[in-house]
Amino acid sequence: MPKAHLTPAFVANAGCEVGKKKTDWYDDTVTGFVLECRCGGGRTYYLRYPDAAGRQKQHKIGKYEDVTFAAAKKEAQRLRAKVVMGGDPRAEKVLARAIPQYVELSVMHLDDAKLHQRSYSTTEMYMRRHIVPKWGKVRLTDINSRAVAQWLGEKRAEGLAPATVEKIRVIFGRSFELGARWGIPGSEKNPTRGVFRKPLDNARERFLTAEEATRLREAVAQSQNTQLQHIVGLLLLTGARVRELLDARWEHVDVERRTWLIPTSKTGKPRRVPLSTAALAIIEALPRFKGCPWLVPNPETKKPFVSITHSWQRARRVAKLPDLRIHDLRHSAASFMVNSGVDLFAVGKVLGHASYQSSQRYAHLANDTLLAAVEAGAAKQAAV
């Protein structure tokens, strides 16, 4: 274990002792700072030190040709100070290498979503299109709030809607929440939590008039998707969510009791939807396919539609309702009920709202009904 006063000049001329495979030159000023010279001519800087259990460890600082002497000695001093304070540079390096890249965490996230999340396809799409391309090859500990905030800002600048950007942030953050729960190294700190978020105004009121509803029904009746007219008709008459209907089974429809059971709704609880005479008429007219349990399946695959976006967009263009979303049929079903005098509590029960507050968004629609009530009261008083 030869010692030497390591200097730039000494290191430049140092070599392996004759007859040996390597020679370790230990610095006489920084304890454990070593220049390893090999018989083949290679030279590497190390810090050697005992760990907490007294076992000899070494931490590679860098090759002679890659690191200047001044930088190597400075790093050795830093690492030596860490050892004196109870640290273990090699263990920290091994731990750093154990930190997975985000792509590994994303796979675990999607596996969990398949089991517990009804909107798996949405999560998978956002990850595939937006999150993994940016962060897939980045180690979890290298993802910080500042970088995430800048990335989300770029997404907004690309023209994505604020609600879409927020959805991306939520899904990305969910990965870290799951990782922390599972004990995945590097996921303890969620980089999305420190990102400033502007308040979202998602309020969008679009309710069909009776005349618009008629135009829409005429348009979907002409669709090449023969199931679209049934789907739209039932959405307007039940106020169900589109995914709930696309996944509906014959076994859950009770014609005698005039109810449709939705086993798992957005709230996570089952609910029963009452079926009007008009809704029952549509159900009774639905085509049946042998061995197919689905209420409105894709006629070609005999499985639930993955999406009806294409046929829906064409139908709304034909109906001259370009701004109408499929979810607006649910709002429209509620508006028709409210404007027919049905109270908000009953409407909320039909739609499966978890709280009365959710139904309050339709309160203003009752104005015509309430106006008719006060007019009737005034007329009664005038008659007396």
From TrEMBL:
Keywords: DNA integration, DNA recombination, DNA-binding. CDD domains: INT_Rci_Hp1_C. Residues 203-375 form the Tyr recombinase domain. Gene3D superfamilies: 1.10.150.130, Integrase, DNA-binding domain, Intergrase catalytic core. InterPro entries: DNA_brk_join_enz, Integrase-like_cat_sf, Integrase_catalytic, Integrase_DNA-bd_sf, Integrase_DNA_bind_dom, Integrase_recombinase_N, Phage_Integrase. GO terms for molecular function: DNA binding. The keyword DNA-binding applies. The keyword Secreted does not apply. GO terms for biological process: DNA integration; DNA recombination. It comes from the Bacteria. Belongs to the 'phage' integrase family. This is Integrase. It comes from Brevundimonas basaltis. The lineage of its organism: Bacteria, Pseudomonadati, Pseudomonadota, Alphaproteobacteria, Caulobacterales.
